[in-house]
Amino acid sequence: MMVSVLQRGAVVAAALAVSCRCAPKATDSGGPGADSGDAAKGTDSAPDTDAVPGTDAVPPGTDAVAPGTDATVATDAAPPGTDAVAPPGTDAAPGACTGTPFGPDAFGYTGCAFSPAAAPCDDITLTGTDAALLDDDFTSVPIGFSFEYYGTAASTVTISSNGALTFTGAYLGLPNACIPGPNAMSVPQFIAAFWDDLDPTAGGGAVRYELFGSPPDRRFVVQWNAAGYGPTSGLGDVRAVLYEGTNAIDVCYVDTAFLDAAYNFGSGATAGLQESDSAGLPYSCDMPLLLGGLVLHYTHP
Hints:
The protein is mainly beta. The protein has one helix at about 1-20, and strands at about 100, 110-115, 130, 140-150, 150-160, 165, 190-195, 200, 205-210, 220-225, 225-230, 235-245, 250-255, 270-275, 280-285, 295-300. It is built from one helix and 16 strands.
């Protein structure tokens, strides 16, 4: 009789031990903060954590996690018209930022940095209109639809040879400056795709633009095939897309290896949105974070 009681007690204790084991849920850390000099790569800034091996139980309301696998929670909106691409170790979810979210800024713009298998920005090398820009040059052209930027609707865009767009006819020249902040050209509001000293006249480069689609889903593409200023730099490939209706923005860093350490991967460039000298959504400033294959998607509030 004594042996039977002990056996039953051991069974109960083992059952209680199993029922109390729970697998912790791994989370991704956020992207770059609002400081103008800070930035984060388009990858998770903290490694995923593993669930407790050998357990099946997870917190209520979450998906089951297989032993030894990672669980993440996706946040923010994915670029319009593109497939969600999840970094290794994360779960893809429709309508989710599958890379590193950053922002919001004071106006409400949010950003998502990710690296999809295929860039959502059209290659217009063979089809786009040559803006015929010289070094340190700019031109204003029709967008083809009404595009709202920081609460103001625009029908034309000013394209700078130095990797920036404005909507007031102003030229954003050099030197680049961190976002948010004043600049030498006193241009308070702009899109910094790859704001650096680029020269589209070198090495057979050019800056092109093209309108695609039909109302109400048109998109306007600008492509900088330009070298960094200087005799040793090769051509880069950076593209920006403005979307009708959503007023979203994509910037694709297709090739940012300029063969010059001063320009490679954005080492001397600014990337982000600026509303004013004191407000904006920065991604990077003078840091080699604009790697080839990176896409920055900006969502209008």
